[in-house]
Structures are given as structure tokens and as C-alpha cells.
Write a structure and sequence with these properties.
Elements: H1 14-49, H2 59-84, E1 88-91, E2 96-103, E3 106-113, E4 121-124, E5 133-134, H3 137-141
Helix pairs in contact: 1-2
Length: about 140
Amino acid sequence: MSQRALQVKLPYTAAGANRALPLVRRIVDDLVACYAEWRAAVSRFEYATTGSRAEQPDLDAARLEAEAQALAAQIQGFVNELQELGLECRALDSGLIDFPGELDGRAVYFCWMRGEPRVEHWHEVGAGFSGRQQLHDSELARK
């Protein structure tokens, strides 16, 4: 279980998603930063291995590969923390997160992206980011 654990009630309401947001924001900030580091590490590894041959392994490449793998494990840890909260991470680079919930008796996702001040959008389960809709104040206040 996560060291940053939070007691959550599933499915989420918009208000519940916003209550969870301080913790989610910290996890997502760490996740996005680590993902950027991982992409850079993978690029360095790929560059190092471009000219190497199997019979002459590049020691620097082995170190770079280990670095990328360690960062990948950290990323998976952050994703696991979000999953423990019942959330779905949709984009590692932008920190797009879906909170499964109910709105007017149907299953939906409350949608938040890193940098947004609060959870203010929702979309149908099959719609994805392109189907995002603004929540009304009355929907934001529902417990």
C-alpha cells in the first residue's frame, strides 16, 4: 500500500475527486517529472547503442540501460499509487487522470490534467479526452 495512502469512497463524485486532488497532484507531479527523466535516459541509451556491436558491449550503454530501467520502475510505482486510489492514468507526459464515478445515475469519468486547479470536467466512459465536458456548479457540490 502507498505511503501516501488516502481513504477513498468509490465511485468518486466530483467533490470527492477534488478532496483527493492534493494527494493526486503530488503523485502526478512526481510521475510526470520521472517520465521526462526516463525519456531522456532512453534517448541517451539509444544514442550510446547506435554504434555498438554485440561482441563489444558498451559499458556506458549498460549503465544507461540500468538507469532507464530504474526510472521505469519508479514510474510504475507512481502508476500503482494512482491505481490504489482507484484512478486511471491516461497520459504519463501530461498527467491526465480519470476518476471513475457516477453522474446522474450513469458511469462516467471525472477528468483532471496536471496544471488544472481542480477537477472540473467529466466524460462518458467510452468518450475519452475529446469528449470532455465542463461540470456545472451543482455537480461539483454533490457529495
